[in-house]
Design brief:
The complex is a heterodimer of chains A (about 90) and B (about 260). Chain A is α+β, with helices and mostly antiparallel strands and about 90 residues long. Chain A has helices spanning about 10-30, 65-70; strands spanning about 5, 40-45, 50, 55-60, 60-65, 75-80. The model of chain A has no long low-confidence stretch (mean pLDDT about 95). Helix content of chain B is about 10%, strand content about 40%. Chain B has about 260 residues and is mainly β. Classes of the chains: A alpha+beta (about 90), B mainly beta (about 260). The interface between A and B is medium-sized, with 27 and 33 residues.
């Protein structure tokens, strides 16, 4: 199951940089475009920015987090679950 | 480069097409026997394409309609034994879903107030203590919940419950079963059209009046069918089936078959 990285509300730029780096690494090393690893950061129920954690498990297989991606999630926190806003 | 391979189990058993007056249950009965009443059947034991253990695409057994996911982090997982020893597709409840936009299927799905049915053989894994938020296993619809037909999980009081979610003239009706603790593996049937009724594990139905006003822009397994996926399912799907309205006889056959698929 995918964990997520949650960035504070004011850290969209940092969240986007992390997501972009994950996608670039994924395309270069695992699957090419049009596949991607994660979606652009999404807002959770608390106004924070959420993206998928690029580590531990990728495509259901054990995966070692790239050092460059680890560095880019310094402002985020790993979580098991997301609370999304109510859909209606 | 990802190692991708298709996985497709041969269809086991099954029966040749039979006139509706002579349908008989027997060894190897499957929803394919429903003939033209069956619109789509996603079976976790067939049609799965993988990258590692993640589902990149899932082809249904009726028309080969593909439900797909190009985002690796949003792919559900497949296992040959995860559904209590049977094949299952596991959704993480965060962002996993697969989407089908096959034009031929979307054109065939009942919309507006036209009658149709949704059937789910699934495992609901969200804990009741996690909260009351809706989690949707299967759905088709338009931009938002006001135009969808779906089967999912709710928690109206303290216990997990199965629900059907139906758009009705700018509102959402949610007939909710109050007889079964909707945790672990169950069979859910939603009959939708001029009103909506939910049945869980062959039990008595719960109905809500109101003609549906739904559409079919997309179909999703593991989340809502809204333009932006939401209400992500936490649990497994073994079978997701979409049909036209079934006769009493056919529904009974489906129910008997579905109850055995729960792997209790």
């Amino acid at each position: 199951m995918s964990k997520v990285v949650i960035f504070p509300a004011g850290k969209l730029t940092q969240a986007e940089a992390y997501a972009d780096a994950c996608n670039q690494h994924f395309n270069a090393n695992i699957e090419p475009l049009p596949a991607s690893f994660t979606y652009p950061p999404r807002i959770d129920a608390f106004g924070q920015w959420v993206t998928v954690y690029y580590g531990e498990i990728v495509n259901g297989l054990p995966f070692e987090e790239p050092a460059e991606c680890l560095a880019l999630r310094a402002d985020g926190v790993l979580h098991e679950n997301v609370v999304w806003p109510p859909e209606e | 480069m990802a190692r991708k391979h298709g996985f497709c189990r041969p269809h086991v058993g099954g029966m040749a097409a039979i006139a509706s007056t002579t349908i008989k249950e027997g060894v190897g009965w499957t929803p394919l026997v429903l003939g033209s009443d069956l619109l789509a059947w996603w079976d976790a034991g067939a049609g799965i394409s993988l990258s590692g253990s993640s589902v990149t695409a899932w082809a249904d057994r009726k028309g080969g309609y593909l439900a797909e996911q190009s985002l690796s982090g949003s792919r559900p997982l497949w296992s040959e034994t995860s559904f209590n020893g049977a094949p299952g597709v596991t959704f993480d409840g965060n962002d996993d879903e697969v989407t089908c936009t096959a034009a031929a299927l979307l054109a065939a799905l009942p919309t507006g107030a036209a009658a149709g049915e949704l059937w789910l053989v699934g495992q609901q894994s969200e804990l009741a203590v996690s909260g009351s938020i809706t989690k949707i296993a299967m759905a088709y619809g338009g931009a938002d919940g006001f135009s969808r037909r779906a089967i999912g999980r709710g928690r109206p009081s303290t216990v997990n419950r199965a629900l059907v979610s139906v758009g009705v003239s700018g509102l959402i009706n949610t007939p909710t079963d109050e007889t079964v603790d909707f945790s672990s593996r169950h069979l859910v049937r939603g009959v939708i059209g001029n009103g909506a009724t939910i049945y869980v594990d062959g039990g008595p139905g719960t109905s809500v009046a109101g003609a549906s006003t739904t559409s079919a822009a997309r179909l999703r397994l593991g989340s809502s069918a809204n333009t932006a996926a939401s209400a992500f399912w936490k649990g497994l799907i073994r079978d997701a089936i979409f049909t036209l309205p079934l006769s009493t006889e056919k529904a009974a056959l489906m129910q008997t078959w579905g109850l055995t698929r729960r792997m209790l």
